[in-house]
Write a structure and sequence with these properties.
mainly alpha, 79% helix, Growth Hormone, Chain: A
Length: 427
Protein backbone atom coordinates (compact mmCIF):
# COMPACT_ATOMS: atom_id res chain seq x y z
CA UNK A 1 0.00 0.00 0.00
CA UNK A 2 1.25 3.45 -0.85
CA UNK A 3 0.45 6.74 0.85
CA UNK A 4 -0.12 10.35 -0.04
CA UNK A 5 2.98 10.71 -2.24
CA UNK A 6 1.79 7.95 -4.55
CA UNK A 7 -1.70 9.44 -4.74
CA UNK A 8 -0.30 12.82 -5.76
CA UNK A 9 2.03 11.19 -8.29
CA UNK A 10 -0.82 9.35 -9.96
CA UNK A 11 -2.87 12.53 -9.77
CA UNK A 12 -0.26 14.15 -12.01
CA UNK A 13 -1.20 11.64 -14.72
CA UNK A 14 -4.85 12.63 -14.38
CA UNK A 15 -3.73 16.26 -14.64
CA UNK A 16 -1.87 15.46 -17.86
CA UNK A 17 -4.97 13.73 -19.27
CA UNK A 18 -7.09 16.78 -18.54
CA UNK A 19 -4.50 19.12 -20.05
CA UNK A 20 -4.56 17.33 -23.41
CA UNK A 21 -8.29 16.63 -23.56
CA UNK A 22 -9.24 20.27 -22.93
CA UNK A 23 -7.32 21.27 -26.05
CA UNK A 24 -9.45 18.96 -28.18
CA UNK A 25 -12.83 19.67 -26.59
CA UNK A 26 -12.43 23.43 -26.13
CA UNK A 27 -9.61 25.09 -28.07
CA UNK A 28 -9.87 23.09 -31.29
CA UNK A 29 -13.66 23.22 -31.09
CA UNK A 30 -13.57 27.04 -31.09
CA UNK A 31 -11.00 27.19 -33.90
CA UNK A 32 -13.09 24.96 -36.16
CA UNK A 33 -16.28 26.97 -35.60
CA UNK A 34 -14.87 30.52 -35.54
CA UNK A 35 -11.55 30.67 -37.43
CA UNK A 36 -12.37 27.89 -39.92
CA UNK A 37 -16.09 28.84 -40.16
CA UNK A 38 -17.12 25.17 -40.02
CA UNK A 39 -20.57 23.98 -38.81
CA UNK A 40 -20.69 23.62 -35.01
CA UNK A 41 -22.03 20.09 -35.44
CA UNK A 42 -18.68 18.95 -36.87
CA UNK A 43 -16.57 19.35 -33.69
CA UNK A 44 -19.58 18.09 -31.74
CA UNK A 45 -19.58 14.85 -33.72
CA UNK A 46 -15.79 14.51 -33.39
CA UNK A 47 -16.01 14.87 -29.60
CA UNK A 48 -18.87 12.34 -29.59
CA UNK A 49 -16.61 9.98 -31.57
CA UNK A 50 -13.90 10.17 -28.92
CA UNK A 51 -16.49 9.32 -26.25
CA UNK A 52 -17.93 6.48 -28.35
CA UNK A 53 -14.50 4.94 -28.90
CA UNK A 54 -14.15 4.63 -25.14
CA UNK A 55 -16.49 1.67 -25.24
CA UNK A 56 -13.14 -0.15 -25.60
CA UNK A 57 -12.26 0.66 -21.97
CA UNK A 58 -13.13 -2.83 -20.66
CA UNK A 59 -10.67 -4.32 -23.15
CA UNK A 60 -7.87 -2.00 -22.01
CA UNK A 61 -8.61 -2.86 -18.40
CA UNK A 62 -8.59 -6.57 -19.20
CA UNK A 63 -5.24 -6.27 -20.99
CA UNK A 64 -3.70 -4.50 -18.01
CA UNK A 65 -5.07 -7.27 -15.76
CA UNK A 66 -3.88 -10.10 -17.96
CA UNK A 67 -0.43 -8.65 -18.58
CA UNK A 68 0.15 -7.52 -15.03
CA UNK A 69 1.81 -4.29 -16.25
CA UNK A 70 -0.49 -1.31 -15.87
CA UNK A 71 2.38 1.19 -16.14
CA UNK A 72 2.98 0.20 -19.77
CA UNK A 73 -0.65 0.85 -20.71
CA UNK A 74 -0.72 4.16 -18.86
CA UNK A 75 2.33 5.49 -20.69
CA UNK A 76 1.35 3.95 -24.04
CA UNK A 77 -2.16 5.34 -23.79
CA UNK A 78 -0.84 8.82 -22.95
CA UNK A 79 1.48 8.67 -25.97
CA UNK A 80 -1.46 7.69 -28.21
CA UNK A 81 -3.55 10.53 -26.74
CA UNK A 82 -0.75 13.01 -27.37
CA UNK A 83 -0.32 11.83 -30.95
CA UNK A 84 -4.07 12.04 -31.52
CA UNK A 85 -4.25 15.57 -30.11
CA UNK A 86 -1.40 16.78 -32.32
CA UNK A 87 -3.04 15.11 -35.32
CA UNK A 88 -6.33 16.84 -34.47
CA UNK A 89 -4.54 20.22 -34.35
CA UNK A 90 -2.90 19.51 -37.72
CA UNK A 91 -6.34 18.55 -39.03
CA UNK A 92 -7.59 22.04 -38.15
CA UNK A 93 -4.75 23.49 -40.22
CA UNK A 94 -5.59 21.19 -43.15
CA UNK A 95 -9.22 22.35 -43.23
CA UNK A 96 -8.03 25.64 -44.70
CA UNK A 97 -6.65 23.98 -47.84
CA UNK A 98 -8.62 20.73 -48.11
CA UNK A 99 -11.82 19.94 -46.26
CA UNK A 100 -11.62 16.23 -47.16
CA UNK A 101 -8.04 15.85 -45.92
CA UNK A 102 -8.77 17.80 -42.75
CA UNK A 103 -11.87 15.72 -42.04
CA UNK A 104 -10.09 12.41 -42.65
CA UNK A 105 -7.20 13.34 -40.35
CA UNK A 106 -9.58 14.69 -37.70
CA UNK A 107 -11.67 11.52 -37.63
CA UNK A 108 -8.56 9.34 -37.30
CA UNK A 109 -7.10 11.65 -34.64
CA UNK A 110 -10.22 11.83 -32.48
CA UNK A 111 -10.53 8.05 -32.66
CA UNK A 112 -6.92 7.82 -31.45
CA UNK A 113 -7.73 10.29 -28.67
CA UNK A 114 -10.57 8.03 -27.52
CA UNK A 115 -8.29 4.99 -27.55
CA UNK A 116 -5.57 6.87 -25.66
CA UNK A 117 -7.93 8.15 -22.97
CA UNK A 118 -9.41 4.67 -22.61
CA UNK A 119 -6.09 2.85 -22.33
CA UNK A 120 -4.33 5.35 -20.07
CA UNK A 121 -7.31 6.43 -17.94
CA UNK A 122 -8.61 2.93 -17.25
CA UNK A 123 -5.21 1.52 -16.33
CA UNK A 124 -4.51 4.57 -14.16
CA UNK A 125 -7.71 4.10 -12.12
CA UNK A 126 -7.04 0.38 -11.79
CA UNK A 127 -3.53 1.09 -10.49
CA UNK A 128 -4.83 3.79 -8.14
CA UNK A 129 -7.45 1.38 -6.79
CA UNK A 130 -4.80 -1.29 -6.26
CA UNK A 131 -2.23 0.83 -4.43
CA UNK A 132 -4.49 3.07 -2.32
CA UNK A 133 -5.44 2.09 1.22
CA UNK A 134 -9.23 1.77 1.72
CA UNK A 135 -9.26 4.61 4.27
CA UNK A 136 -7.68 6.97 1.72
CA UNK A 137 -9.85 6.18 -1.31
CA UNK A 138 -12.25 9.11 -0.90
CA UNK A 139 -9.28 11.45 -0.57
CA UNK A 140 -7.53 9.79 -3.52
CA UNK A 141 -10.56 10.28 -5.76
CA UNK A 142 -10.87 13.90 -4.62
CA UNK A 143 -7.21 14.71 -5.12
CA UNK A 144 -6.87 13.11 -8.55
CA UNK A 145 -10.03 14.74 -9.91
CA UNK A 146 -9.15 18.16 -8.49
CA UNK A 147 -5.73 17.83 -10.09
CA UNK A 148 -7.44 17.01 -13.40
CA UNK A 149 -9.57 20.15 -13.05
CA UNK A 150 -6.41 22.11 -12.27
CA UNK A 151 -4.75 20.70 -15.39
CA UNK A 152 -7.74 21.75 -17.46
CA UNK A 153 -7.82 25.26 -15.98
CA UNK A 154 -4.07 25.90 -16.23
CA UNK A 155 -3.81 24.57 -19.77
CA UNK A 156 -6.84 26.51 -20.97
CA UNK A 157 -5.44 29.73 -19.52
CA UNK A 158 -1.81 29.41 -20.60
CA UNK A 159 -2.52 27.89 -24.02
CA UNK A 160 -5.03 30.66 -24.70
CA UNK A 161 -2.44 33.30 -23.80
CA UNK A 162 0.27 31.79 -26.01
CA UNK A 163 -2.11 31.35 -28.98
CA UNK A 164 -2.57 35.11 -29.37
CA UNK A 165 -2.05 36.40 -32.00
CA UNK A 166 -3.28 33.22 -33.66
CA UNK A 167 -1.34 31.50 -36.43
CA UNK A 168 -1.39 27.88 -37.54
CA UNK A 169 2.30 27.51 -36.67
CA UNK A 170 1.70 28.87 -33.18
CA UNK A 171 -1.17 26.38 -32.68
CA UNK A 172 1.05 23.43 -33.57
CA UNK A 173 3.84 24.71 -31.31
CA UNK A 174 1.50 25.11 -28.32
CA UNK A 175 -0.11 21.69 -28.82
CA UNK A 176 3.30 20.05 -29.24
CA UNK A 177 4.52 21.59 -25.96
CA UNK A 178 1.41 20.54 -24.03
CA UNK A 179 1.31 16.98 -25.39
CA UNK A 180 5.06 16.43 -25.09
CA UNK A 181 5.06 17.78 -21.54
CA UNK A 182 2.11 15.54 -20.64
CA UNK A 183 3.89 12.40 -21.84
CA UNK A 184 7.09 13.32 -19.99
CA UNK A 185 5.17 14.12 -16.80
CA UNK A 186 3.35 10.78 -17.04
CA UNK A 187 6.58 8.81 -17.37
CA UNK A 188 8.09 10.55 -14.35
CA UNK A 189 4.89 10.22 -12.30
CA UNK A 190 4.37 6.46 -12.72
CA UNK A 191 8.03 5.43 -12.78
CA UNK A 192 8.50 2.42 -10.46
CA UNK A 193 5.18 3.04 -8.62
CA UNK A 194 3.77 -0.33 -9.63
CA UNK A 195 6.97 -2.19 -8.80
CA UNK A 196 7.40 -0.58 -5.38
CA UNK A 197 3.76 -1.17 -4.52
CA UNK A 198 4.09 -4.88 -5.36
CA UNK A 199 0.65 -4.82 -6.96
CA UNK A 200 -0.73 -8.34 -7.10
CA UNK A 201 -2.14 -9.29 -10.48
CA UNK A 202 -2.78 -12.59 -12.13
CA UNK A 203 -1.01 -12.64 -15.50
CA UNK A 204 -2.90 -14.92 -17.85
CA UNK A 205 -1.21 -15.12 -21.22
CA UNK A 206 -3.92 -17.28 -22.79
CA UNK A 207 -6.87 -15.48 -21.25
CA UNK A 208 -9.59 -14.15 -23.58
CA UNK A 209 -11.21 -10.75 -23.18
CA UNK A 210 -14.74 -12.07 -23.71
CA UNK A 211 -14.24 -14.60 -20.91
CA UNK A 212 -12.97 -11.93 -18.53
CA UNK A 213 -15.83 -9.58 -19.37
CA UNK A 214 -18.42 -12.37 -19.00
CA UNK A 215 -16.88 -13.26 -15.66
CA UNK A 216 -17.19 -9.68 -14.36
CA UNK A 217 -20.71 -9.24 -15.80
CA UNK A 218 -21.82 -12.39 -13.97
CA UNK A 219 -21.09 -10.69 -10.64
CA UNK A 220 -24.37 -9.09 -9.47
CA UNK A 221 -22.74 -6.11 -7.74
CA UNK A 222 -20.49 -5.32 -10.69
CA UNK A 223 -23.40 -5.63 -13.15
CA UNK A 224 -25.77 -3.52 -11.07
CA UNK A 225 -23.09 -0.90 -10.44
CA UNK A 226 -22.52 -0.64 -14.20
CA UNK A 227 -26.21 0.16 -14.69
CA UNK A 228 -26.04 2.65 -11.83
CA UNK A 229 -23.03 4.41 -13.36
CA UNK A 230 -24.73 4.71 -16.76
CA UNK A 231 -28.02 6.08 -15.36
CA UNK A 232 -26.42 8.45 -12.86
CA UNK A 233 -23.93 9.84 -15.39
CA UNK A 234 -26.72 10.27 -17.93
CA UNK A 235 -28.49 12.44 -15.35
CA UNK A 236 -25.21 14.21 -14.56
CA UNK A 237 -24.56 15.21 -18.18
CA UNK A 238 -28.13 15.99 -19.28
CA UNK A 239 -27.86 19.65 -18.31
CA UNK A 240 -24.39 20.13 -19.85
CA UNK A 241 -25.62 21.42 -23.24
CA UNK A 242 -28.83 23.14 -22.12
CA UNK A 243 -28.00 25.11 -18.95
CA UNK A 244 -26.33 28.03 -20.76
CA UNK A 245 -29.07 28.27 -23.45
CA UNK A 246 -31.62 28.23 -20.59
CA UNK A 247 -29.81 31.13 -18.95
CA UNK A 248 -29.83 33.09 -22.20
CA UNK A 249 -33.37 32.38 -23.38
CA UNK A 250 -35.20 32.50 -20.05
CA UNK A 251 -33.09 34.83 -17.89
CA UNK A 252 -31.62 37.04 -20.64
CA UNK A 253 -27.97 36.25 -19.91
CA UNK A 254 -25.43 37.58 -22.42
CA UNK A 255 -22.82 35.17 -23.90
CA UNK A 256 -20.27 36.49 -21.42
CA UNK A 257 -22.63 36.06 -18.48
CA UNK A 258 -23.56 32.52 -19.49
CA UNK A 259 -19.86 31.61 -19.81
CA UNK A 260 -19.28 33.01 -16.30
CA UNK A 261 -22.21 30.89 -15.14
CA UNK A 262 -20.35 27.79 -16.28
CA UNK A 263 -17.33 28.90 -14.29
CA UNK A 264 -19.50 29.41 -11.21
CA UNK A 265 -20.97 25.93 -11.59
CA UNK A 266 -17.50 24.38 -11.85
CA UNK A 267 -16.53 26.28 -8.72
CA UNK A 268 -19.40 24.52 -6.99
CA UNK A 269 -18.18 21.16 -8.35
CA UNK A 270 -14.74 21.90 -6.89
CA UNK A 271 -16.20 22.66 -3.46
CA UNK A 272 -18.39 19.55 -3.53
CA UNK A 273 -15.44 17.29 -4.32
CA UNK A 274 -13.32 18.95 -1.66
CA UNK A 275 -16.06 18.54 0.93
CA UNK A 276 -16.29 14.78 0.40
CA UNK A 277 -12.52 14.33 0.47
CA UNK A 278 -12.08 16.30 3.70
CA UNK A 279 -15.19 15.01 5.49
CA UNK A 280 -14.86 11.32 4.58
CA UNK A 281 -11.10 11.08 5.13
CA UNK A 282 -10.15 13.85 7.54
CA UNK A 283 -13.19 13.72 9.81
CA UNK A 284 -14.39 10.18 9.00
CA UNK A 285 -17.94 11.34 8.41
CA UNK A 286 -20.24 8.97 6.54
CA UNK A 287 -19.71 6.14 4.08
CA UNK A 288 -19.21 6.62 0.36
CA UNK A 289 -22.71 5.22 -0.14
CA UNK A 290 -24.21 7.99 1.98
CA UNK A 291 -22.24 10.66 0.09
CA UNK A 292 -23.37 9.27 -3.27
CA UNK A 293 -27.01 9.27 -2.16
CA UNK A 294 -26.73 12.77 -0.69
CA UNK A 295 -25.18 14.04 -3.91
CA UNK A 296 -27.92 12.49 -6.05
CA UNK A 297 -30.78 13.76 -3.89
CA UNK A 298 -29.19 17.19 -3.55
CA UNK A 299 -28.77 17.42 -7.32
CA UNK A 300 -32.40 16.39 -7.81
CA UNK A 301 -33.68 18.99 -5.38
CA UNK A 302 -31.57 21.76 -6.90
CA UNK A 303 -32.70 20.89 -10.43
CA UNK A 304 -36.31 21.17 -9.25
CA UNK A 305 -35.52 24.64 -7.89
CA UNK A 306 -33.82 25.68 -11.16
CA UNK A 307 -36.89 24.46 -13.05
CA UNK A 308 -39.23 26.44 -10.80
CA UNK A 309 -37.20 29.65 -11.12
CA UNK A 310 -37.90 29.95 -14.85
CA UNK A 311 -40.44 32.70 -15.35
CA UNK A 312 -40.72 33.34 -11.57
CA UNK A 313 -40.13 36.55 -9.66
CA UNK A 314 -37.01 35.10 -8.01
CA UNK A 315 -34.60 35.14 -10.96
CA UNK A 316 -31.84 36.48 -8.70
CA UNK A 317 -31.65 33.02 -7.11
CA UNK A 318 -30.72 31.35 -10.40
CA UNK A 319 -26.92 31.74 -10.14
CA UNK A 320 -26.77 30.56 -6.48
CA UNK A 321 -28.93 27.57 -7.48
CA UNK A 322 -26.52 26.69 -10.30
CA UNK A 323 -23.56 26.90 -7.90
CA UNK A 324 -25.44 24.61 -5.49
CA UNK A 325 -26.13 22.20 -8.36
CA UNK A 326 -22.40 22.10 -9.07
CA UNK A 327 -21.71 21.45 -5.37
CA UNK A 328 -24.02 18.43 -5.22
CA UNK A 329 -22.80 17.21 -8.63
CA UNK A 330 -19.21 17.33 -7.37
CA UNK A 331 -20.18 15.56 -4.15
CA UNK A 332 -21.87 12.78 -6.10
CA UNK A 333 -19.15 12.46 -8.73
CA UNK A 334 -16.16 12.11 -6.42
CA UNK A 335 -18.01 9.69 -4.09
CA UNK A 336 -19.03 7.59 -7.11
CA UNK A 337 -15.44 7.50 -8.38
CA UNK A 338 -14.16 6.47 -4.95
CA UNK A 339 -16.88 3.80 -4.88
CA UNK A 340 -15.62 2.47 -8.21
CA UNK A 341 -12.14 2.15 -6.73
CA UNK A 342 -13.51 0.27 -3.72
CA UNK A 343 -15.83 -2.05 -5.65
CA UNK A 344 -13.16 -2.80 -8.26
CA UNK A 345 -11.36 -4.98 -5.73
CA UNK A 346 -14.42 -7.11 -4.98
CA UNK A 347 -15.28 -10.34 -6.74
CA UNK A 348 -12.75 -12.57 -8.43
CA UNK A 349 -9.13 -11.46 -8.10
CA UNK A 350 -7.19 -10.20 -11.09
CA UNK A 351 -10.13 -8.34 -12.66
CA UNK A 352 -9.67 -4.84 -11.19
CA UNK A 353 -8.84 -3.30 -14.56
CA UNK A 354 -11.71 -5.06 -16.32
CA UNK A 355 -14.21 -3.75 -13.78
CA UNK A 356 -12.81 -0.22 -13.97
CA UNK A 357 -12.92 -0.43 -17.75
CA UNK A 358 -16.54 -1.58 -17.77
CA UNK A 359 -17.58 1.30 -15.52
CA UNK A 360 -15.44 3.77 -17.44
CA UNK A 361 -17.13 2.72 -20.69
CA UNK A 362 -20.55 3.17 -19.08
CA UNK A 363 -19.51 6.64 -17.91
CA UNK A 364 -18.18 7.70 -21.32
CA UNK A 365 -21.26 6.46 -23.18
CA UNK A 366 -23.51 8.20 -20.64
CA UNK A 367 -21.61 11.47 -21.16
CA UNK A 368 -22.39 11.47 -24.86
CA UNK A 369 -25.89 10.04 -24.50
CA UNK A 370 -26.90 12.32 -21.62
CA UNK A 371 -25.88 15.52 -23.39
CA UNK A 372 -27.58 14.46 -26.60
CA UNK A 373 -30.76 13.39 -24.78
CA UNK A 374 -30.97 16.67 -22.86
CA UNK A 375 -30.54 18.80 -25.98
CA UNK A 376 -32.94 16.68 -28.02
CA UNK A 377 -35.59 16.69 -25.31
CA UNK A 378 -35.45 20.49 -25.09
CA UNK A 379 -35.82 20.82 -28.88
CA UNK A 380 -38.90 18.60 -28.81
CA UNK A 381 -40.40 20.33 -25.76
CA UNK A 382 -39.94 23.80 -27.29
CA UNK A 383 -42.13 22.82 -30.23
CA UNK A 384 -45.01 22.23 -27.80
CA UNK A 385 -44.57 24.96 -25.16
CA UNK A 386 -42.69 28.16 -24.39
CA UNK A 387 -39.02 28.24 -23.36
CA UNK A 388 -39.30 28.30 -19.55
CA UNK A 389 -41.63 25.30 -19.15
CA UNK A 390 -39.84 23.41 -21.93
CA UNK A 391 -36.45 23.62 -20.20
CA UNK A 392 -38.13 23.14 -16.83
CA UNK A 393 -39.70 19.86 -17.91
CA UNK A 394 -36.29 18.50 -18.97
CA UNK A 395 -34.69 19.59 -15.69
CA UNK A 396 -37.48 17.83 -13.77
CA UNK A 397 -36.92 14.65 -15.79
CA UNK A 398 -33.21 14.88 -14.95
CA UNK A 399 -34.13 15.36 -11.28
CA UNK A 400 -36.27 12.23 -11.43
CA UNK A 401 -33.33 10.26 -12.83
CA UNK A 402 -31.18 11.44 -9.92
CA UNK A 403 -33.82 10.27 -7.42
CA UNK A 404 -33.98 6.85 -9.11
CA UNK A 405 -30.18 6.52 -9.07
CA UNK A 406 -30.15 7.46 -5.36
CA UNK A 407 -32.54 4.57 -4.69
CA UNK A 408 -30.41 2.31 -6.84
CA UNK A 409 -27.23 3.36 -5.00
CA UNK A 410 -28.90 2.48 -1.70
CA UNK A 411 -29.58 -1.05 -2.97
CA UNK A 412 -26.42 -1.65 -5.04
CA UNK A 413 -24.07 -0.61 -2.23
CA UNK A 414 -25.96 -2.48 0.49
CA UNK A 415 -25.74 -4.45 2.69
CA UNK A 416 -21.96 -4.02 2.75
CA UNK A 417 -20.90 -0.35 3.12
CA UNK A 418 -17.93 0.17 0.81
CA UNK A 419 -14.64 1.87 1.42
CA UNK A 420 -15.52 4.32 4.15
CA UNK A 421 -12.80 5.89 6.19
CA UNK A 422 -12.94 2.93 8.57
CA UNK A 423 -14.18 -0.03 6.62
CA UNK A 424 -12.41 -2.32 4.23
CA UNK A 425 -14.29 -3.54 1.11
CA UNK A 426 -15.85 -6.91 1.75
CA UNK A 427 -16.35 -6.41 5.50
Amino acid sequence: MQGWVTIFRLGLVQMALGAIVVLTTSTLNRLMVIEMALPAVLPGLLVALHYGIQITRPNWGFLSDAGGRRTTWIIGGMAALALGAFGAAFGVVLFETSFAAGLALSIASYALIGLGVGASGTSLLALLASVTEPRLRAAAATITWLMMIAGIAVTAGTAGAFLDPYTHARLLEVVACVTGGAVLLTILAVWRVERRARVETEPQENARFIDGLREVWSEPRARNFTIFVFLSMTAYFMQELILEPYAGLVFGFTPGQSTSLSGAQNGGVFLGMLTVGVAATGFKLGSLRSWVIAGCLGSAGTLAVISALGGSAFAQLFVPAVVLLGFFNGMFAVAAIASMMALAGEGRGGRVGTRMGLWGAAQALAAGFGGLMGAGAVDIARTMMSDAPAFGAVFLFEATLFVLTAVMAFRVMAPRPIATATLVPGE
